Each structure stands twice: as structure tokens, then as C-alpha cells.
Automatic annotation (TrEMBL):
Its main location: endoplasmic reticulum. Gene3D superfamilies: MFS general substrate transporter like domains. It comes from Cyprinus carpio carpio. Residues 28-455 form the Major facilitator superfamily (MFS) profile domain. It holds the Pfam family MFS_1. It catalyses: D-glucose 6-phosphate(in) + phosphate(out) = D-glucose 6-phosphate(out) + phosphate(in). GO terms for biological process: phosphate ion transmembrane transport. Belongs to the major facilitator superfamily. Organophosphate:Pi antiporter (OPA) (TC 2.A.1.4) family. One of its GO terms (molecular function) is glucose 6-phosphate:phosphate antiporter activity. This is Glucose-6-phosphate exchanger SLC37A2. The chain crosses the membrane at residues 20-38, 83-106, 113-134, 140-169, 181-200, 206-227, 274-300, 320-338, 350-370, 431-451. InterPro entries: MFS, MFS_dom, MFS_trans_sf, SLC37A1_2, Sugar_P_transporter. CDD domains: MFS_SLC37A1_2 (cd17344). It comes from the Eukaryota.
């Protein structure tokens, strides 16, 4: 008589090979994008400009200014908030510009090579920022250049990981699956805060070098193990590059398609335009701009706000700021679940943003209500639009659609911290008013899509014209 299999083995063998691949890809891309955010976070933790008069200084040190001796030049002057704002913007502006091109490269290059090279380069530039501590570099230009280059290579991550997950998962429970998966953003921010917090008061260089090593190591793992789709993309590599570029420009700028390319490419361009206009790429992109403005202002300025207002030491302020990200994990999953159940992506985003407006100063709730729509737009919505049925046979359009949406959102990510740096000297209350205004604008931009979804629920159908 044969003995029955152990329950654990039964469970493992009950899943198909395809299911294991899906789980493996979900786990790998989760880890990869966690490391991207883990390497971005330290800059907000070392921003904690201290009052050095409370710090015991070494006996052999000749001190000229009792308040700034322990701060790192050139960030030891009264304009340190503006200088940190410049650093943030070097990264974020480069990231926003790079994102619009990243989708185009993501379509043309194998995602495994593209993602792994991006992660290794991100690791190098993140570590170079930290090495400024050991090399005694006090030039603002060095840190600006490293941040800008890091911003450019970090654009490799998002379009690539969303394209991978979109290729492997169907549309049914995409919001819920991607809601859980998108917690990598918050997990990365939390781990980045905790790792940077360990070294912030002793050797801040390690706050960057350790995350740099982690993301570079993840890049090697990506090169060894990533499978980008069920069938690795074949063919289409030798198409005429000039023809594709002409057609792509005509799509983006709504120019007439040259007659010699029209018959071959017109259906694809028409499909792109249909998705672009009817499915709300523009509205979701602009909504994300304001949602990211709020989220990134918190990401970059929250530790400094806590340190200044609550007078916590750097490590405690960094740890407490992770509450916003804990809320973000819950919010992303909740937004995905509600939108899958209701079928209303735009309505879910709008409702959460409306509730978020009066709660900007409550870290946990605001994190959930702002990061929920942000997570939904950058994952499930991008994947829905990029794999729309009228783009069938052109799945790599997912990479471009993702890049367009996230690239537009990244403009907000660049503007938010810059405005916070300019407004914060006039009082932190004014920063919160700015965040509330951005939140309200994000809601208003979705009003057409919400109206459309509500009409759908009430049994109305949109009549096609022409």
C-alpha cells in the first residue's frame, strides 16, 4: 500500500509550472523594485541638518562655529534646505525626463538586459554619493551630477517591471495582485529609512554605499533569473528603425503618417490613439502628477519636518516617517481590491483622494489614501491601458504607456519637493495647504472618467459617433 504524499509536497505539486513561473516573476520583480526605492530613500534621511551645539565634539577639533561644526559642507549653512531641494531636483528632473525615453528603450531592448544594467548602474551612482564622505568631497556639483545620473538610470526600473508583470498576469484580479505587489515602493522606503538611519549619525557615507551594493547585487540576480514573458519575444528585431521612429513621432505629436509607412503601421497608430484618448491616459497621467507631488514631498521632506517640529533626533525622525509608507502598503492593496470588485479604477482613485485632503497631517491615514491611487494608476491602470485589446499583438506598448503615465507623474515628483523647499521657510502649515490643493486638483482631473464609470454602473452605454 502506497503512503500518501506529505501535505506540503501535495500543495507544491498542485500548482502548474505556469503558476510557479508567475509567482517567481512576481517575487523577483517585487524584490527588484524594492531595491530601487531602498536606494532612493537615504537622501531624505541624511537631510537631517542638526544643531551641533548639542553634540559633544572631539577635544582635538578646532571649532569656528558651534552650531554647524558637525554638518557636512556645503550643507552646513543657513540655506541648507534650498541646497537639499536642488539635490532632490537634480534626481527628480533627470528621472522625469528620462522616463519619457525609458519606455521607448524598454520596447526595443530585452527587458532582462535593460533592467539588470539599470540596477547595476544605480548601485554604482548611489555608492558614489556615499563615497563623497570618505573622499572628503565638499563640492555641490559632484553630488548634483551623481544624483542626476542616478535619476536617469533609475528610469529603467518602472516600465520594465510593470511590463514583466503585465505580460504574466491577466486582467481579472490585476488590481488586487498589483496592489499587493506595489507595496514594494513602501517596503523599499521603509528598509531604506532603517538602513540609512543606522549610519546617519556616525558615517553617513554607508547610508548610501550599503543600499548601492544591495541594488547592484539584485541586478546580477535579475540578469541570471528573469523571464520577461511566457514566450520570450521573438522576431520584430530587424524592422526598419527609421520607419518605426517616424511612425512613433506621428503618434506622439498627432502628425499625418507619411504615405510610404501608412499601410504598414496605420492600424497600430490608430490603436495607440484610441487608447490614448478614449481610455483616459491623459487624465490618469495628470492625476498621477498631483498624487506624486504629494507622495514625493512626504518622501523627501517628512523626516526633516518631524525633526524640526517634534524635535526628534535624526534616527527617531527617520523611523517615525516610515508610518507614511506603512499606510501606503495598506492603501495600495485596498485600492486594488476595491477597483477589482467595483470595476471603477477612476472612481476608486477619486474617492480616496477626496478623503485624503483633510487628513494630510495624519501620517498613517494620509499614506494609505494618497499612495492607494498612486499605486493603482502606476500599476493596474497602466497595465490595463498597455494591454488593451486594440493593442493586441503589440504587448510591448505596455512599456511605453507605463513610461508616459509615470513620466508625467514624475514631473509632479520633481515639483513637489522643490515647492516644499521654497515654502517651508514661511511655515510648515503653508506646505500642507499646498499638498491639499494638489490633492483636490488630482480629484478634479478624474471627474470625466468617474462620470463615465458611474453612467456605466447605472446601465448607460457610451454611444460611438461616426
Amino acid at each position: 500500500k502506497m503512503r500518501s504524499l506529505a501535505p506540503g509536497i501535495k500543495l507544491i505539486t498542485s500548482f502548474s509550472r505556469d503558476s510557479w513561473y508567475r509567482f517567481f516573476i512576481l517575487l523577483l520583480t517585487f524584490v527588484f523594485y524594492t531595491t530601487y526605492h531602498l536606494s532612493r530613500k537615504p537622501i531624505s534621511i541624511i537631510k537631517l541638518h542638526r544643531n551641533c551645539s548639542n553634540v559633544i565634539h572631539p577635544a582635538d577639533l578646532n571649532i569656528t562655529d558651534n552650531d554647524t561644526w558637525c554638518d557636512w559642507a556645503p550643507f552646513d549653512q543657513n540655506n541648507y534646505q534650498n541646497l537639499f531641494g536642488v539635490l532632490d531636483n537634480c534626481f527628480l528632473v533627470a528621472y522625469a525626463i528620462g522616463m519619457f525615453f525609458s519606455g521607448i528603450f524598454g520596447e526595443r531592448l530585452p527587458l532582462r538586459y535593460y533592467l539588470s544594467s539599470g540596477m547595476i548602474l544605480s548601485g554604482i551612482f548611489t555608492a558614489l554619493f556615499g563615497l563623497g564622505f570618505y573622499w572628503q568631497i565638499h563640492s555641490l556639483w559632484y553630488y548634483c551630477l551623481v544624483q542626476a545620473l542616478n535619476g536617469l538610470v533609475q528610469t529603467t526600473g518602472w516600465p520594465a517591471v510593470v511590463a514583466c508583470v503585465g505580460n504574466w498576469f491577466g486582467k481579472g484580479k490585476r488590481g488586487f495582485i498589483m496592489g499587493i505587489w506595489n507595496s514594494h515602493t513602501s517596503v523599499g522606503n521603509i528598509l531604506g529609512s532603517l538602513i540609512a538611519g543606522v549610519y546617519v549619525s556616525s558615517a553617513w557615507g554607508l547610508s548610501f554605499i550599503v543600499p548601492g551594493i544591495i541594488i547592484a547585487a539584485a541586478g546580477v540576480i535579475c540578469f541570471l533569473f528573469l523571464v520577461e514573458s511566457k514566450q520570450e519575444q521573438k522576431g520584430n528585431k530587424n524592422k526598419d528603425f527609421v520607419a518605426r521612429r517616424v511612425v512613433r513621432l506621428s503618434f506622439i505629436f498627432y502628425l499625418p503618417i507619411p504615405s510610404n509607412h501608412r499601410s504598414k503601421y496605420h492600424p497600430v497608430i490608430f490603436a495607440h490613439r484610441v487608447v490614448f484618448i478614449l481610455q483616459g491616459v491623459v487624465e490618469f497621467s495628470l492625476c498621477l502628477l498631483f498624487a506624486k507631488l504629494v507622495s514625493y514631498t512626504f518622501l523627501y521632506w517628512l523626516p526633516l519636518y518631524i525633526a524640526n517640529v517634534a524635535h526628534f533626533d535624526p534616527k527617531k525622525a527617520g523611523d517615525l516617517s516610515t508610518l507614511f509608507d506603512v499606510g501606503g502598503i495598506v492603501g495600495g492593496i485596498l485600492a486594488g481590491l476595491i477597483s477589482d470588485y467595483s470595476g471603477g479604477r477612476a472612481t476608486t482613485c477619486c474617492a480616496m483622494l477626496i478623503i485624503a485632503a483633510p487628513m494630510v497631517s495624519m501620517l498613517l491615514w494620509c499614506g494609505a489614501l494618497v499612495n492607494g491611487p498612486y499605486a493603482l494608476i502606476t500599476t493596474a491602470v497602466s497595465a490595463d491601458l498597455g494591454t488593451h485589446e486594440c493593442l493586441r499583438g503589440n504587448s510591448r506598448a505596455l512599456s511605453t504607456v507605463t513610461a508616459i503615465i509615470d513620466g508625467t507623474g514624475s514631473i509632479g515628483a520633481a515639483v513637489g519637493p522643490l515647492l516644499a523647499g521654497l515654502i517651508s521657510p514661511t511655515g510648515w502649515n503653508n506646505v500642507f495647504y499646498m499638498l491639499i490643493a494638489a490633492d483636490v486638483l488630482a480629484c478634479l482631473l478624474l471627474s470625466r472618467l468617474v462620470y463615465k464609470e458611474v453612467r456605466g454602473w447605472c446601465g448607460y452605454t457610451t454611444r460611438l459617433r461616426g
